[in-house]
């Protein structure tokens, strides 16, 4: 899939402190590209952390939304900017380890991009509509087995964790489920709620308000550990499906050409902002579990491992974009 022409960006000034201190990298606004529409989870995270950064460094922070092509348009735009630290990006780690598996991108995700800092993580939720007859995971499994070959799972985009999880679950439980792809979580969840599809593995951030609102029923999570929101709910690993262990991350990214001193300064200001209690509470409120790290080598090592794992999944199930 080729990148579409870069869309006209939507610029939003999210804050400017009158503090006398100036950031050593300059006095221009810090531009934070979000490769997703305004109002989504990534966009909210960028604005919450960005607002605190602006307060801390006395410099405007501007969010520029560049959605499209599974995030590749925004990431490409960031890489085309001068690698001086004035233009960075906030996005999920699937930009590096999932999307490039199923589409052609004009960059090497593991060489051209550097993870500056991680600010939050999120697990994935196995859900059905609230009216679904099964009350727990074992009941769900039994229900799906009675409809072998006739049941279905929704995913919010082919080649994503949502897609991987459904395929692995169907395969390992011998359910013969049909895959139904959607352009994002909202339309997929509406059909799950309405009963047009049986189940979905969705990001906790988008499912959380619907679970709390009684529109979705939660059976399991696919993170490395139980969710802080629902500690009584088991993981897929606990239920006997260790291969369904996926965890999303929200990170700040930059060009791998960033000078070391600039990278270090960015890491320091992002960590300070993301560690602020008010910021962490705001992230938690929208379904993101605060988890701050500036260990760039560790994040790169993790990405290389996830890239290889996902490549094997894509090959096994012959996953392709529509």
List the helices and strands and how they pair.
Elements: E1 10-13, E2 30-34, H1 41-57, E3 61-65, H2 72-80, E4 87-92, H3 94-97, H4 99-102, E5 113-129, H5 137-146, E6 152-155, H6 161-172, E7 178-181, H7 185-194, E8 199-203, H8 204-212, E9 216-221, E10 247-255, H9 260-274, H10 277-285, E11 289-293, H11 296-317
Parallel strand pairs: 2-3, 2-4, 6-7, 6-8
Antiparallel strand pairs: 1-3, 4-10, 5-8, 5-9, 5-10, 5-11
Q: Low-confidence spans: pLDDT under 50, at least 5 residues? A: 1-8, 16-24
Structural class: alpha/beta
What is the residue-averaged pLDDT? 91
Order of helices and strands: EEHEHEHHEHEHEHEHEEHHEH
Give the C-alpha Rg.
20 Å
How many separate helices?
Answer: 11
Helix content: 25-40%
Strand content: 15-25%
Distance between the termini: 10 Å
Number of E-type strands: 11
- Major β-sheet profile: 11 strands, mixed
Instruction: Label the overall shape.
Output: globular
Description:
Helix 6 links the parallel strand 6 and strand 7 (178-181). This protein has eleven helices and eleven strands. Strands 1, 2, 3, 4, 5, 6, 7, 8, 9, 10 and 11 form an eleven-stranded mixed β-sheet that branches. With 322 residues, it is α/β, with parallel strands linked by helices. The protein is globular.
């Amino acid at each position: 899939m080729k990148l579409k022409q870069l869309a006209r960006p939507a610029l939003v000034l999210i804050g400017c402190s009158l503090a006398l201190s100036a950031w050593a990298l300059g006095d221009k606004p810090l531009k934070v590209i979000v490769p997703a529409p305004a109002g989504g989870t990534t966009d909210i995270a960028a604005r919450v952390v960005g607002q605190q950064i602006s307060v801390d460094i006395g410099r405007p922070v501007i969010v520029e939304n560049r959605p499209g092509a599974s995030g590749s348009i925004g990431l490409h735009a960031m890489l085309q900017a001068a690698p001086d630290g004035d233009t960075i990006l906030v996005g999920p780690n699937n930009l590096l380890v999932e999307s490039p598996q199923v589409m052609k991108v004009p960059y090497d995700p593991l060489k051209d991009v550097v993870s500056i800092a991680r600010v939050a993580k999120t697990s994935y939720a196995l859900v059905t509509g609230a009216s679904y007859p099964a009350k727990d995971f074992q009941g769900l499994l039994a229900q799906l087995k009675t409809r072998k070959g006739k049941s279905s799972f929704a995913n919010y985009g082919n080649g994503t964790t949502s897609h991987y999880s459904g395929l692995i679950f169907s395969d390992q439980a011998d359910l013969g489920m049909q895959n139904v792809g959607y352009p994002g979580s909202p339309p997929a969840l509406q059909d799950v709620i309405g009963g047009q599809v049986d189940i979905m593995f969705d990001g906790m951030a988008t499912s959380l308000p619907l679970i709390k609102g009684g529109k979705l029923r939660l059976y399991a999570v696919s993170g490395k550990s139980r969710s802080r929101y629902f500690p009584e709910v088991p993981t897929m690993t606990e239920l006997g499906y260790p291969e369904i262990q996926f965890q999303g991350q929200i990170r700040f990214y930059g060009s791998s050409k960033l000078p070391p001193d600039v990278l270090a300064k960015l890491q320091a200001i992002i960590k300070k902002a993301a560690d602020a209690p008010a910021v962490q509470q705001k992230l938690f409120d929208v379904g993101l579990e605060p988890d701050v790290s500036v260990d760039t080598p560790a994040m790169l090592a993790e990405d290389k491992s996830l890239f290889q794992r996902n490549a094997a999944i894509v090959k096994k199930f012959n996953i392709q974009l529509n």
